[in-house]
Amino acid sequence: GGSIHRNYDLLLRHSLHIVGEVQFPVHHCLLALPGVKPENLRRVISHPQALAQCENTLTLMGLNVAREAFDDTAGAAEFVAVNNLRDTASIASARAAEIYGMNILADGIQDDVGNVTRFVMLAREPVIPRTDRPFKTSIVFAHEEGTGVLFKVLSAFAFRNINLTKIESRPQRSKPVRVVDDLNGGTAKHFFEYIFYVDFEASMADPRA
């Protein structure tokens, strides 16, 4: 499924601080109303991330039906139950099946059995960092134009022996497109300006950081 890019955009938009994270194993079930069989299905609904995480398994199950995005997994299960949709299944948790009185047609349908989802905990005030235990820090930055500038930025971590655990790029909404003339072809090329989200293993109280 990969990253949920909207969350990165929201982090930049609001003045909040990441103060912790939790990781949960990804475990999806295929849910339908009691009595509904796989051959009765015409579509599967769920959150886009859940649909992506189960894409191959659904195909191997022979469910070559329409797959439609929904706001969230539990909401998809509720939608099927409340509207008595007997041609629609949802991808959600076993707990959602209990709550909405649905049957589990297939359990553990995620493509990657070792996949986890990371949730970050946000607060208005930052946590005062320490150096007595491992910390992870998340930052976002943009850099000036120029050859090898991103390499120079990232090399600052390597020179200080700081391990990067994640790097993600997103287009800058304030400067979405940069136009550059192509001297050879006489045409203009369009480029995005990017910002970078980086996670690294160090506290801001660490002298290396």
UniProtKB/TrEMBL annotation:
Please state every residue range assigned to the domain named Prephenate dehydratase. 1-124
Which residues, by range, are in coiled-coil regions? none
What is any one of the record's Gene Ontology cellular component terms?
A: chloroplast stroma
- Pathway this chain belongs to: Amino-acid biosynthesis; L-phenylalanine biosynthesis; L-phenylalanine from L-arogenate: step 1/1
Q: Which domain of life is it from?
A: Eukaryota
Which GO biological process entries does UniProt record here?
Answer: L-phenylalanine biosynthetic process
For this entry, the protein name equals: Arogenate dehydratase
Q: Which organism is it from?
A: Keteleeria davidiana var. calcarea
Question: Which gene is transcribed and translated to give this protein?
Answer: adt3
